[in-house]
Amino acid sequence: MAAWTSDELDRIGDATELDLQSARDDGTLRDPVTMWVVRVGDEVFVRSMNGPDGAWYRGTQTRRQGRVTADGVTKDVAFDDTDHDLDADIDEVYRTKYQRYGANIVGGVVNSASREATIKLTPRS
């Protein structure tokens, strides 16, 4: 399995938003969805504000792969399950990185439903 480079981790981790395209059954990519992204150590995560019921999240479960773009980095990725032992760390990065939007907005991704819909983005190439 491929790994993120230091430059990719820095650029994606510092980006405010990431565009995510999930793959359909036939391998074609869906339209991009823009979302917040966080880095914890050498791993990159996204969450669905609507938990597992979010349309884009459900789309990631079809083939569990797609493409992400942030700050000039475009990468084919796998949508992997998250070690929920990291939930508190992921929550803290979301709170710190996006605090300027206020607790009510950040609370949309720092809650139990969103934690269930946390995806680790793992490079495929």
TrEMBL record:
It holds the Pfam family DUF2255. InterPro entries: UCP028498. This is DUF2255 family protein. It comes from Actinomadura physcomitrii.
